[in-house]
Amino acid sequence: MRSRSSQSNSTNHVLVEEPGDSHPHVLYSGRSSAPRMSLSSISSHSRKRKLVISGIAFNDVVRLEAVQRWCESFGEVDQITRISNGDLHVNFRKAEVADMVCRLRARVHIAGVGSVHMSWINGNKKS
After folding, report:
1. 2, 16 Cβ separation under 8 angstroms
2. Would the pLDDT of 65 be above 90?
3. CA–CA distance from 95 to each of 12, 108, 125 (Å)?
4. How far apart are CA 77 and CA 90, in angstroms?
5. In this structure, are residues 14 and 68 in contact, taking their beta carbons and an 8 Å threshold?
6. Rounded CA gap, 12 and 100, in Å?
7. Is the separation of the CB atoms in 67 and 56 below 8 Å?
8. Cα-Cα-Cα-Cα dihedral of 51, 56, 60, 66, to 10°?
9. Cα–Cα distance between 57 and 122 in angstroms, integer?
10. Engineering a disulfide at 44: which of 66, 93, 95, 98 sits with its beta carbon 3.0 to 4.6 angstroms away?
């Protein structure tokens, strides 16, 4: 796996992965590696949704960075992870942002990316 920094901040990074790897890989981490929680978010944290994006090829750094920018236009992103089937799982920092973005379940056009399929998961179950 090669590492490529998407910004000058050393905590942000984009990884370019090798196809066929069976383990999930973090492709992007947000500003802070430490989890932040408030008491009001404890109950909703366990059921926070993750956006699932399909259609981004392995090692397509340009499209991955465009997906990252698109996701960040809704709110702060904690992490983008590549799953072994090729899907991207996007974790948003705030549950409200995740809930809003995860209302999408369709083919969506993202500038700089093109057409991708979006769905969401609660825990490990895909919707």
Report:
1. yes
2. yes
3. 21, 22, 17
4. 7
5. yes
6. 24
7. yes
8. -50
9. 24
10. 95
Torsion of CA 123, 86, 98, 119, to 10 degrees: -90
- Are residues 47 and 63 in contact, defined by beta-carbon separation less than 8 angstroms? no
Name the least confident of 40-54, 57-71, 83-97, 104-118: 40-54
> Whose CA is closest to 20, among 84, 99, 63?
84
Residues sharing a CB contact under 8 Å with residue 86, sequence separation 6 or more, in sequence order: 19, 54, 56, 57, 58
Give 41's contacts (C-beta < 8 A, 6+ positions apart). 95
Smallest Cα–Cα separation from 4: which of 92, 49, 65? 65
Is the pLDDT at 57 greater than 70, yes or no? yes
Q: Rounded mean pLDDT of 65-79? A: 93
Q: Give the DSSP H/E element, type plus range, for residue 117.
A: strand 114-122
**Cα separation of 84 and 44, whole Å?**
27
